[in-house]
Specification:
- The structure holds 3 protein chains of 3 kinds.
- Chain A is of the alpha/beta class.
- Chain A has 10 helices and 21 strands.
- In chain A, α2 links the parallel β7 and β8.
- Chain C is an alpha/beta fold.
- Chain C is 28% helix and 25% strand.
- Chain C contains 4 helices and 8 strands; from the N terminus they run βαβαββαβββαβ.
- In chain C, the strands form 2 sheets. Chain C has a 5-stranded parallel sheet with strand order 3-2-4-5-6, sandwiched between helices. A 3-stranded antiparallel sheet of chain C has the order 1-8-7.
- Chain C is globular and about 45 Å long.
- The chains are: A alpha/beta, B alpha/beta, C alpha/beta.
- At the B-C interface, α1 of B face α3 of C.
């Protein structure tokens, strides 16, 4: 049996310790005997493997943008041991068949644990509930459902979805965007959009849906997850809902923690994203909310696009940014001036997302759980070069920026899928192991 | 000045220099030979992704009077292929040796993208992009206004305006500010030149964020006419499609509240010029009396458009990339 | 830096007076004359030449004689060098057709400015004749052009600078010549 000793790593709480891996699980290093492999982690942080609640792997349907294999490799390079693949594929992941296909392709790739997200409504059309129970019962064991890219706008459909998934402890992840208030929208509505003459995407279009949804969640006693929160007003609403005991969790993307709508002045579509980049005031509020726990998790909303959808004029360009491979560095950078420890980083990027979706083998470095962890060099200034990234998407808005923290190694159930800054060997999911639990 | 993408990029000196050059250009049309040799051997490409016969013809006339060869490319692309065709077209034009590109596009920022994407290395003139800017329209408005403000005829070449700004002028812009590239360009340019701008519009047709603009904003046209000694009132065209998007209840109500009716035209100061970027919706945003009054300078605006566009092409295509130095203060 | 003055204010005044006599003599009087200065310093020189003509022929209105002819748009070096702003063209009496145009410039050097001026003239109308008056001819012609009236011939080396200053623009009247590497004007 392959055994690994990770020596002298710095844990999220600041202590230094050795970590032992055997049989895909974390074990007491005293019990290892002579390890097959020893990894010197002196000076490196060991975090539980990152969990992304929000990514777009594009397969099936848009394999020119990303495949489950390339997206999984990007996840490994970014330190993610589990990623949730959004349902807006073609065909839409609204049946057990499609989610099982995604699940199987993820296992075949072997670089990260691919968790398919099921669509809430058939074809993301917002009208008829998809077979949520069938997807939950499938091999993919879907627990999170989202029409991401589209808002579940009809309040009655949303209410039913929230209620229905209680049967299998599911969660609805809402893309909060009032469609009527955002028809033709191209960027945040405000001072910059007024000047640039681009149709605005007002903050209220997000906030109105969040306000409605938290009240619905309270009424029916269900869990609600709010995707990519982008405004200061949304933060206030979520804070209020949590103070009332409503079971709402919230997510923010790395890019909304750093970039503002001032970037749009360049008319470079790499900055075109949905929800749009907001103002500096919103960025401040989001950082504060992530630090104080109002916002629970970071989700990348990794959205690769082929260059012909980005190398065009703004109004014709697709919305979305890639982010898995820069997320950790960007979040560390964004939160550097706040009271935000390594433990907090592990909480928002790994522990909380794993708890919300119920991944017992992720989000923890406890003995006996899956050996899913990432080693990070906290002080490794490097320039972001999207052309060298594993994702097929080159639409990384941080191109050319210098960031500090860098992922060096990713262990997926003990398999070193990313080793010393290079892609490693994939995990054979087909074999017996704790990943089948 | 390598490109002309937005009036917000123009300094006062650059703007005055362009207007002064346009005055020289306007003399050309009075001469025996209505042509200058300055762009001989150069090719100007008119790249029109959106129909606009008036603007296209104006740019064509301007380029031809400067002896340039003109290629017009009308590509009213579908929404899907639009992006690709901009890049492909730009690279094709570059390979063919275009020395200047005049672009009109329905998407805000397309000229900016063309100028800064590296697809082509020629000067780019924005001939109107989406609801962003229409800088040559603003320049011709300022050019016309400058003559009027100096007490000169709007239509005749006049050295009397040379070197001057629009200091002290009060200009009202009335109508659909939200969707108007003309309004955006004018707010920047007219204030840069020293004028005070008052926007008059229904609240639904003002952009959120307008309070950051260097101008006054009022909702009531009658109050605006009462409170401001306008030197010029610019009536914007209301696009037909807005009538069906619930920006205002009915066309009749709009005309009643924001149209330049005969009574309102009579309430304006006697020397107030009436402007319109054309084409006018008579009986809607502008009444017959105002449209046909001698104070209406609508046709002068059209004529002056050629001179202004000649000045812009001359400035950009003679290849001088250093910052323009205006002659203000020297003469 | 080595600079010497070759004409002072009084000498410039005398030269212009002499040119005025020559112009009148060649034209057999002030009839049909129009004096067009080439910007920048040709313009005030044309105005002064007109005043000199008016002193000789008191019935003449100096203001109706002198104008300005911008040549910027006809230059052959438009696309190189520094940015040039066009100056106003002013034709006294509104037309040059059938009149005798005297082009007035400060320095005649390569002849390129005069070529551009001839193009500019033909774009405006069809004069009876075009003559050229310059304050200084420094030689080194590149085109088959010569002046009809010259204030002073100043043989110069190619790398020397000839600087003309006029009261209306520079606050004093002088013509100087500066050796290579010096700062003229």
């Amino acid at each position: 049996m392959t055994t690994t000793l990770i020596r002298a790593a710095t844990l999220p709480d600041g202590s230094r310790a050795d970590l032992g891996i055997a049989g895909g699980l974390l074990v007491d290093p005293q019990d290892l005997g002579t390890p097959t492999t020893v990894v010197d982690a002196d000076g490196l942080l060991a975090l539980p493997g990152l969990v992304d609640m929000h990514t777009h792997l594009r397969e099936p349907g848009r394999e020119d943008a990303e495949t489950i294999l390339t997206g999984s490799r990007a996840a490994a390079a970014g330190g993610y041991t589990a990623v949730h693949a959004m349902a807006n594929t073609s065909p839409v992941a609204d049946t057990a068949g499609v989610v099982e296909q995604v699940h199987r392709l993820g296992r075949a790739a072997g670089y990260t644990q691919v968790e398919p997200v099921g669509a809430v409504t058939v074809g993301l059309a917002g009208e008829t509930l998809a077979e949520l129970g069938a997807m939950a019962d499938s091999e993919a064991r879907v627990r999170m459902f989202s029409d991401d890219g589209h808002c579940v706008w009809d309040p009655l459909v949303m209410r039913r979805a929230l209620e229905y998934v209680k049967a299998f402890d599911g969660i609805i992840a809402q893309h909060a965007q009032d469609p009527r208030l955002t028809e033709g929208a191209q960027m945040n509505e405000g001072v910059v959009s007024a000047e640039l003459g681009l149709p605005g995407w007002p903050a209220v279009a997000e906030e109105a849906i969040i306000a409605r949804d938290v009240l619905l969640a309270e009424h029916v006693g269900s869990r609600l997850h709010v995707c990519h929160v982008s405004t200061a007003g949304s933060v206030e609403l979520i804070r209020w809902a949590k103070s009332r005991g409503i079971r709402v969790t919230a997510e923010v993307t790395p890019h909304h923690l750093v970039l503002t709508d001032e970037e749009v002045r360049s008319f470079d579509p790499v900055y075109k994203v949905n929800p749009p980049l907001r103002t500096q005031e919103d960025v401040h509020a989001l950082r504060g909310a992530l630090a104080d726990g109002t916002i629970d998790v970071v989700g990348t909303d990794h959205a690769p696009h082929p260059s012909e959808h980005k190398c065009v004029e703004w109004t014709a360009a697709a919305m979305g940014m890639v982010g898995m491979e820069t997320a950790l560095a960007v979040v560390s950078h964004a939160m550097r001036d706040l009271d935000f420890s390594t433990a907090d980083l592990a909480r928002v990027m790994s522990t909380r997302p794993a708890e919300i979706v119920g991944l017992a083998h992720h989000g923890t470095l406890a003995i006996g759980t899956g050996a899913n962890l990432v080693l990070v060099d906290p002080e490794a200034p490097h320039t972001v070069e999207p052309d060298t990234h594993e994702t097929m998407g080159r639409n990384n808005p941080f191109r050319g920026r210098t960031l500090g923290a860098r992922v060096t190694d990713t262990f997926l159930y003990g398999t070193r899928v990313f080793a010393d800054g290079e892609l490693g060997t994939p995990l054979a999911f087909g074999e017996a192991g704790p990943w089948n639990d | 000045m390598k490109h002309l993408l937005s009036t917000s990029e123009l300094t006062r000196a650059e703007a005055i220099d362009l207007l002064d050059t346009a005055e020289q250009m306007s003399l050309v049309s009075t001469r025996e030979v209505k042509k200058l040799p300055v762009l001989r051997g150069l090719t100007v490409v008119n790249l029109f992704f959106e129909d606009s016969t008036r603007t296209r013809i104006s740019f064509e006339a301007a380029a031809k009077r400067l002896s340039a060869d003109v290629i017009t490319f009308s590509a009213k692309g579908s929404s899907v292929s639009k992006g690709e065709s901009l890049q492909d077209t730009a690279q094709t034009l570059s390979a063919m040796g275009a020395d200047g590109v005049v672009i009109r596009h329905s998407g805000s920022g397309a000229p900016h993208r063309l100028a800064h994407s590296g697809w082509i290395d020629a000067p780019v003139v924005n001939a109107g992009d989406g609801t962003h800017e229409h800088p040559t329209q603003a320049l011709l408005d300022a050019f016309t206004l400058r003559r009027v403000h100096a007490g000169l005829p709007a239509s005749a070449p006049a050295d009397g305006a040379v070197g001057r700004g629009l200091d002290g002028a009060v200009v009202g812009i009335v109508g659909d500010i939200l969707h108007s590239r003309v309004a955006r360009s004018n707010v920047h340019l007219l204030t840069t030149l020293g004028a005070r701008v008052v926007l008059v519009a229904p609240p639904t047709l003002l952009p959120i964020g307008v309070e950051s603009w260097p101008c006054d904003v009022v909702y009531d046209l009658d109050a605006a006419i009462r409170d401001h000694p306008f030197d010029a009132l610019m009536m914007l065209r209301v696009q037909q499609e807005r009538m069906h998007e619930a920006f205002f209840p009915t066309a009749r109500e709009y005309a009643r509240r924001w149209g330049l009716s005969d009574a309102r035209a009579r309430a304006l100061p006697g020397d107030c010029a009436i402007m319109h970027p054309g084409p006018m919706n008579r009986g809607f945003e502008i009444g017959a009396e105002a449209a046909d009054s001698p104070r209406a300078v609508v046709l002068d605006q059209v004529a002056n458009g050629v001179s202004v566009r000649m000045a812009v092409l001359y400035r950009l295509l003679t290849g001088q990339s250093t910052a323009a130095s205006g002659r203000e203060g020297q003469s | 830096m080595k600079q010497r003055t070759v004409l002072d204010g009084a000498e410039i005044h005398r030269a212009l007076t002499r040119i005025a006599h020559e112009v009148l003599e060649a034209n057999k009087g002030p009839e049909g004359l129009v004096l067009l200065g080439i910007p920048t310093r040709g313009v005030p020189l044309a105005a002064r030449l007109a005043e000199a003509v008016a002193r000789i022929e008191p019935a003449t209105d100096a203001g109706a004689l002198a104008g300005a002819l911008d040549i910027t748009m006809h230059r052959d070096d438009l696309r190189s060098g520094r940015l040039r702003s066009a100056a106003p063209t002013h034709i006294p009496g509104g037309t040059i057709d059938a009149r005798t145009v005297v082009l007035v410039d400060d320095v005649l050097f390569s002849g390129r400015s005069v070529r551009a001026a001839l193009d500019a003239v033909s774009a405006i109308g069809r004069p009876h004749a075009v003559r050229l008056a310059v304050l200084v001819d420094r030689g080194h012609r590149r085109l088959p052009i010569r002046a009809d009236h010259v204030g002073k011939n100043i043989p110069s080396a190619l790398d020397e600078r000839v600087g003309v200053r006029v009261q209306e623009i520079d606050g004093e009247d002088s013509v100087t010549i500066t050796a290579a590497g010096g700062d003229g004007r």
